[in-house]
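Long-time lurker, first post. I've been practising inverse folding by hand and with some scripts of my own, and I keep getting stuck on stretches where the structure tokens seem ambiguous. Below is the full token string for one chain I'm working on. Before anyone asks, I'm not after the true native sequence, just a reasonable design that respects the backbone. If someone could post their per-position residues I'd love to compare against what I wrote down in my notebook.
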């Protein structure tokens, strides 16, 4: 190939550019992008406050990462456990210390990834793993009722294995996840330090489903108290919205399915001195046959009774049922002659027994009796106004002028 003037000129220009580039780099006018440089090992630069020799970390103490000021600074810290949950923390303004702001979980394995830079601005990195000690005291949770199909009035119950004071209740509520499909507004309500109920603002959606899970494992509840192993999730499915409205003054029951009347039944309710409680009640269970004795509820003397009862649908723990009462057939639709139960013909009681299930609703109106207890005698949860119900949640609590929480019923402990 001929060494033409055009070729020689191009070659000289190329060599000149290469030389100028080399001079520019040598003079510091251009440097590699720090993001493309492999980080150095920052093991000697940073210090963790975790014990040496594989000793497990005390979960009650915060995690700290520090660096000597003259050796550079920390630029970022990410700490996650084996489930992928991040540990929140705060980096000081000068970059010499990072400290966790959320409690560590007990019995968990963590990975901390720390990014640094030295005095020259070069990036460094360090990965550190550690395991926290198991909890000395574990909080377990028992959900109720059992998984299954229920009526739209069935509340969720959570019983704790140890009392939890007000300061720690938020941690418990955050760890008890309630997933409702379709979604509805709902809230937990603390009955006392060991029991809480959950219900939506309105009844559960007909045809809906709710799943309750315990995500408290390893979570710090209070000093020395951590969430224990997760209990089995609770799943409830809901059928039609079944409601029985008992008008004690007219002596008739109206039965509705999804808001539409499907039956009307003549009934008798509690007579004076034994008047049926007003309010919304939830079906607790059903017994084809039960022997009802006045002595079991403190009734003696002239009012004592001992009766075989069929098709008995229970609505309170104290013994209020909807049941067959053939002995008072002449009073059905005309007078209240029972000791508090809602009585009807055997045929109607059998229909009611077959139609209603646990969680369905029975509301008594226009009775001269007292109001249904909200807690302690079945599930009277729906007799509390929504604002007051929400006030019993630690996450949405409202406080009375005397400093106590709205809706506190600390003396009660309902049955699951």
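-- Answer (accepted) --
I ran through it position by position. Result:
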């Amino acid at each position: 190939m001929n060494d033409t003037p055009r070729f020689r000129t191009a070659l000289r220009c190329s060599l000149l550019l290469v030389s100028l580039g080399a001079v520019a780099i040598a003079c510091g006018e251009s440097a590699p992008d720090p993001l493309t440089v492999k980080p150095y090992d920052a093991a000697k630069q940073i210090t963790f406050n975790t014990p040496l020799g594989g000793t497990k970390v005390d979960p009650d103490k915060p995690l700290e990462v520090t660096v000597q000021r003259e050796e550079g600074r920390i630029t970022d810290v990410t700490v996650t456990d084996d489930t992928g949950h991040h540990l929140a923390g705060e980096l000081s303004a000068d970059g010499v210390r990072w400290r966790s702001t959320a409690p560590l979980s007990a019995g968990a394995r963590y990975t901390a990834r720390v990014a640094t830079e030295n005095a020259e601005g070069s990036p460094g990195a360090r990965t550190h793993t550690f395991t926290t000690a198991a909890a000395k005291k574990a909080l377990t949770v028992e959900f109720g009722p059992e998984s299954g199909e229920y009526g739209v009035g069935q509340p969720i119950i959570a019983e704790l294995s140890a009392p939890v004071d007000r300061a720690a209740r938020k941690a418990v509520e955050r760890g008890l996840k309630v997933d409702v499909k379709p979604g509805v507004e709902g809230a937990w309500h603390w009955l006392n330090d060991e029991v809480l109920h959950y219900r939506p603002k309105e009844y559960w959606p007909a045809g809906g489903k709710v799943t309750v899970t315990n995500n408290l494992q390893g979570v710090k509840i209070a000093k020395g108290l951590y969430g224990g192993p997760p209990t089995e999730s609770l799943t409830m499915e809901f059928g039609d919205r079944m409601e029985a409205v008992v008008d004690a003054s007219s002596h008739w029951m109206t039965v509705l399915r999804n808001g539409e009347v499907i039956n009307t039944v003549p009934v008798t309710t509690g007579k004076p001195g034994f008047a049926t409680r007003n309010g919304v009640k939830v079906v607790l269970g059903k017994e084809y046959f039960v022997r009802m004795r006045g002595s079991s509820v403190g009734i003696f003397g002239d009012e004592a009774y001992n009766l075989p009862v069929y098709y008995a649908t229970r609505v309170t723990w104290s013994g209020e049922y909807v049941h067959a009462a053939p002995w008072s057939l002449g009073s059905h639709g005309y007078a209240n002659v029972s000791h508090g139960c809602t009585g009807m013909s055997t045929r109607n009681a059998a229909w009611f027994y077959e139609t209603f299930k646990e969680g369905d609703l029975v509301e008594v109106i226009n009775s001269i009796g007292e109001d249904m207890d909200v807690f302690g005698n079945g599930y009277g949860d729906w007799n509390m106004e929504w604002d007051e119900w929400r006030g019993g949640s630690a996450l949405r609590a409202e406080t009375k002028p005397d400093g106590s929480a709205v809706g506190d019923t600390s003396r009660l402990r309902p049955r699951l």
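A couple of notes from the structure itself: The two ends are 98 Å apart (CA to CA). The mean pLDDT is 87. Happy to go over any region you disagree with.
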